Amino acid sequence: MDTAKLVLNIEGKEQSLDLPVITGSEKEKALDIGSLRAKTGLVALDPAFGNTASTLSAITFLDGEQGILRYRGIPIEELGAHSNFVEVAYLLINGQLPTKSQLESYRYNLTRHSMIHEDMKRFFDGYPSTAHPMAILSSMVCSLSAYYPDALDAMNTEMFDITATRILSKVRTISAYAYKKSIGQPFVYPQNHLSYCANILNMMFSVPAEPYHIDEEWVKILNLLLILHADHEQNCSTSTVRTVGSAHTNLFASISAGVCALWGPLHGGANQEVLEMLEKIRVSGDSVQKYVELAKDKNSTFRLMGFGHRVYKNFDPRATLIKGACDKLLSKKGVKDPLLDIARRLEEAALKDSYFVERKLYPNVDFYSGIIYRAMGIPTDMFTVLFALGRLPGWIAQWKEMNADKSTRIVRPRQIYTGETERHYVPMDKRG
Ligand code: SDX
User: Which residues are annotated as catalytic?
Assistant: First the structure.
């Protein structure tokens, strides 16, 4: 174990201390400050944790400078080209690619746990048709726990596999039902003869009145999109799942908390914001340059949604793959989307502008994904639901890894108090 020698000189008082240095399998290094407060009385302050590693993890590696993303060591480009979402979910959660028989049994289990309790269908009666599907998703995922009391004990590892399978399978059904509720169409049950992604499309778009043709091109690109969203180390929603799970909270409630965090427009909600931004630019008829200038203006609240990333200071490899798939598919389908042209011009203008170049702001995973969802006929308020669907294996894998780590303790950060020093209660008749 390496150590770092620190010499602190605070208010003339000098102290030297040795702190362990942790080195990861990709040679990343961290100063282990677990003993800092005990040795010095100091805590470290890093509000958005931009300089703080919250955990060791063996699931996903990303290098923001090189634009590298790997799930369990396998590059995202290879998984996108050769794998499918069910196999990637298995890889993330179990650590290895499945054998043929493991994949068949995993797929069988996911197929057979896709229905939700009939009583849960009545929950939808209480939502207005205008309810945002992310609100429905977070509450319905948490409500699933009511039907599986044996899964409430997060430390009962025997219940993990079936609970993870139920969530991965039933969230598709809940998501599709939320969409059907919003358009006043009858719910469509999952079909056991359909693949994971084909079932999503069938439950969303088929109607009882006529047969529904499943377009294999859309199934293929939906697999790719879900793969590309499947995990991303300690992002906001994954950190939320870990924080909630660190209290030994069950997997349903931990995932429900992750859905809420992902909903934020700065996080997973950005894919919906991007389409709304592109539509606003289209309707305005103004030049994209006007919006690039607006995004740079500190007096304006406008941001180029789908641009920038806390970790990627180079191209987000997912954005590159999604943009390529988008171009290829839309031209093959003969889809001419004015918003795609605007997105391309916006990207071109921003990447030539010193404001974006200096801040290393590139398109992220959310910049082009919505264009594909829109071409598939998916409404914008369902985009983040699809992001959540894709992120499920990552959240589940990270929750499992945290609970398997014997050194895990409940997440409870410190703070530095900046409020009033001690003062005393003033009776009403003495107040000003
Ligand atoms: C996701 O963490 C993950 O891995 C997330 C994710 C995942 O897979 O889980 O990758 C998914 O959430 C992708 C990000 C989706 N969000 C958006 O597209 C929203 C728009 N982007 C941002 O608001 C912003 O870039 C963040 C939130 C993504 C990152 O924010 P940071 O790291 O806190 O950076 P910052 O806000 O401090 O910005 C640094 C500078 C600032 O300017 P200065 O103060 O230096 O002058 O860059 C500017 C910001 O104003 N800036 C932008 C901008 N993003 C950052 N200016 C204009 N448009 C933008 N989009």
Answer: 309, 366
User: In sequence order, what are the residues at sequence separation of 6 or more whose Cβ sits closer than 8 angstroms to the Cβ of residue 65?
Assistant: 313, 314
What would the pLDDT profile of 51-107 be if each residue is shown by its tens digit? 999 999 999 999 999 999 999 999 999 999 999 999 999 999 999 999 999 999 999
Is 318's C-beta closer than 6 angstroms to any atom of ligand 1?
no
What separation in Å is there between the alpha carbon of 394 and the centre of ligand 1?
Answer: 21
The answer, yes or no, to whether any atom of ligand 1 lies below 6 A from the CB of 401, is: no
Q: How far is the CA of 311 from the centre of ligand 1 (A)?
A: 9
Pocket test for ligand 1, best of 266, 281, 305, 392 (most atoms within 8 A of CB): 266
Q: How far is the CA of 8 from the centre of ligand 1 (A)?
A: 34
Please answer whether residues 314 and 359 qualify as being in contact, where contact means their C-beta atoms are separated by less than 8 angstroms: no
Instruction: Indicate the pTM of the whole model.
Output: 0.96
Q: Does ligand 1 have an atom closer than 6 angstroms to the CB of 303?
A: yes
- For ligand 1, atom 51, the nearest C-alpha belongs to 308
Cβ–Cβ under 8 Å, residues 402 and 59? no
Residue in 327, 357, 343 with CA at minimum distance from that of residue 277: 343
pLDDT in tens, 373-387: 999 999 999 999 999
